[in-house]
Amino acid sequence: MQVIYIGNPILREISKPVESFDSELRRFVEELTRTMYEDDGVGLAAPQVAVSKRLFVFDDGSGPRVIINPEILEKGTEKVSIEEGCLSIPGIYANVIRPSWVKMRFQDIKGETHEELFEGYAGRIVQHEYDHLDGILFIDYLSPAKKALLRPKLNSIIKGKVAK
Ligand code: NI
Q: Residue 164 pLDDT more than 80?
C-alpha cells in the first residue's frame, strides 16, 4: 500500500460512502493502519492510498481508531491554530486554524453507528482526515502569501522530485 502525493487527482475527489462491512473492508483497514504507522503518521485517509472511500484511521496516542462514513454534526465556536502536516504533502508543515472540537456521527468496522465528541489532538486529526474525504488538503486553508512561499516545495512534490 502506497501513499500518494499532492498532484495526484485522486486526492481531490469526493470519496464515496462505504457500503459493505465485510472481510475485504477489515483487511483494507488493517493495511491502512499499518501504512499509517510505517510512515509515522497520526492519521491516514483512504483517498491517500488511492481508494476513494469515506473512511480514515488515526491514532492520537491512545491506540488505533477507524472512522467510517463520518458526518460532522456540530463544531466548536472556539478556533485554535495548530501546526499540521500530511503524509501526502511530505516535508511541509504549517499552522491551520480550525474549531477546537467536532461532534461526529460515524460507523465502526461492523457498520454500527456512533456519535462522539473529538477534542484536543484527536479533534484536530479527525478534522484534517475528514477533509481528505472531500478532496480538501490543509494547504487549502493557508493565506496566498504563505502558499506562495511554499509553492517551490509544493511544485517539487507535484513533479515527483521529493523522495518519501
Ligand atoms: Ni493529510
A: no
